[in-house]
Amino acid sequence: MAAYHELITETLESYAVVERQAAALPRVAPHREPGHLPEGDRLGAWYRRTSIRGAASGPLAGRTVAVKDNLCVAGVPMSGGSAALEGFVPERDATVVTRLLDAGAEIIGKSVCEDLCLSGGSHTAVTGPVRNPWDLTRSAGGSSSGSAALLAAGEVDLAIGGDQGGSVRIPAAWCGVVGLKPTFGLVPCTGSVPIEPSVDHVGPMARTVADVAALLAVIAGPDGRDPRQDPRTTVPDYRPALAGDVAGLRVGLLAEGFGRPGRGDPAVDDATRDFARLLAKAGANVSEVSVPEHRDAAHVWTVVFVGGATTQLVDLAGGVAGCDPALAAALHRGRREHAARLSATVKMVALLGAHLIRTSGGAHYATARALTGPLTAAYDAALGQVDMLAMPTLPMTATPLPPPGAPPREQVARALEMIPNTCPFDVTGHPAISIPAGLVDGLPVGLMLVARHGGEATLIRAAAAYERLAGGFPMSPLTGGHS
After folding, report:
1. Which residues does the UniProt record annotate as the domain Amidase (predicted)?
2. Cα angle vertex 101, ends 76, 120, to 5°?
3. Confidence band for 3, pLDDT divided at 50, 70 and 90
């Protein structure tokens, strides 16, 4: 033991050097104000209100932005939707925050997100539920719940979301706005609360396709700090895609994305098929394609997600590259000190993951990660036949919020039941966009389009064309009219 003690003591010098060098990392600007708690927020969608103005000019000059509360905004308190981070104040901006400000945007607040982002509902945040602007008794979707609700209510021009299992696209669909999950690694996750490094995504949200394209152009591209990114990646000009038509575009209706068992709603499927008919009239070639692997893809995602989330919640607690050092330390401390106050979903994932680690090590996770290769190849094969896949973003419209004190089974069901079409593309990394596809019983329906890796321009082309053909997207009763 003495020999190992000596070796470890010598190696610890590296850690001491890193701690000393940490002082050179950029910290909060001295003029940054912490903002204030929201008042009169009937949606429960704001975590903090701010007024952080960016550059005097730029592509987003004059536009207001809500930043999901899993992203660091230096000097502004954040919680990641969780008791585990209450009171934490970041010292550094997330990369996407820096880019927003450099582009001239004004950050007017942090939007509420689900407890550590482990929910597709909008009922697990430590601050309480986020309500859907179309029906205040229903879920806004999650985990980027506040971002979507604020957009749908017209309280903000643009918003940033995060997506690990559908967390940009789920609330976009249920709130009737546009949300895009980029190709894995296109947008840096530096400065965000991590869940699983292979499924973490940050993406743009807005009421129109053009605004999503403009926002994506600002936040995309390597930052030199997120190892998940390819430093050779370049960001194209998405503006030409906004004016493109759909003549000759090949759209494949994914057979396995329709008729989902359980809580699937045939009316939602019908609304999505109406999209296809509209595009076909405009010259698109619409056909049905099959990817049998899609039926079980959510199970592969589940094992990857639980394995990665457990690493953050039970083991390293945020200690991954690209995570803010102070954020990693706060997560490590807070998840122990406030474990009893974590949501039922977080507790379930942590307990399950810990059990699997003790009983089988990382075998299940390793197997699921190995299966992502064949799964990705199956989607790629279908995308070799068509330019994009189309399916309902979610199999049902927004569900009622669980009542206070609902049993864990109900809370977890409302958090995860909607994800079978969205989560596969987090594990495969394909870009996917959710756009409004009309209303069913007065509630928004989302259409999801999926393209080849790097195919964001194709998604924007089709989504913008559909937006024009539909005459704009319907707006919630809190705003009225069309976008």
Report:
1. 54-459
2. 60
3. confident
Q: Is the per-residue pLDDT at 1 higher than 50? A: yes
Region 463-467 average pLDDT: 96
* Beta bridge pairs of residue 180: 433
Distance of CA 50 to the CA centre of its chain: 22
| CA neighbor of 148 nearest in space, from 86, 212, 195 | 212
Per annotation, catalytic residue among 79, 111, 122, 143: 143
With contact defined as beta carbons under 8 Å apart, do 322 and 228 qualify? yes
CA torsion 411-130-205-259 (nearest 10°) is 40
Whether 68 is a known active-site residue: answer yes
CB 433 within 8 A of CB 457: no
Q: Where are the domains of the chain?
A: 29-469
Q: Which distant-in-sequence residues (6+ apart) come within 8 Å of 98 by Cβ?
A: none
What is d(CA 141, CA 399) in angstroms, rounded to the nearest whole number? 9
Known catalytic residue: 167?
yes
**How far apart are the C-alpha atoms of 425 and 445, rounded to whole Å?**
19
The count of C-alpha atoms lying within 13 angstroms of the C-alpha of 180, restricted to the half-sphere facing its C-beta, is: 33
Q: Which of 68, 110, 181, 347 is catalytic?
A: 68
| Residue entry with tokens 């999650």 | 142
Q: Which of 167, 192, 434, 476 is catalytic?
A: 167
Whether 204 and 212 have beta carbons less than 8 Å apart is answered as yes
Q: Which among 194, 430, 181, 137 is positioned nearest to 297, based on CA atoms?
A: 430
Give which of 45, 258, 75 is closest to 143, Cα–Cα: 45
* Residue 147 annotated as catalytic: no
Which whole-number Å values give the CA distances from 89 to 32, 194, 200, in the listed order?
12, 17, 22
Inter-residue contact 181 to 175 (CB < 8 Å): no
Q: How far apart are CA 371 and CA 369, in angstroms?
A: 5
Interacting residues of 242 by C-beta distance below 8 A, sequence separation 6+: 209, 210, 213, 460, 461, 464
Domain 29-469 -> CATH class: alpha beta
**Angstrom distances, CA of residue 230 to CA of 183, 222, 304, 383:** 11, 7, 22, 22
| Distance between CA atoms of residues 391 and 253, nearest Å | 6
- pTM for the full predicted model: 0.96
Those residues with Cβ within 8 angstroms of residue 430's Cβ, 6 or more apart along the chain or in another chain: 183, 376, 379, 383, 450, 451, 452, 453, 455
Residue 52 has pLDDT above 90, yes or no: yes
pLDDT attached to residue 317? 47
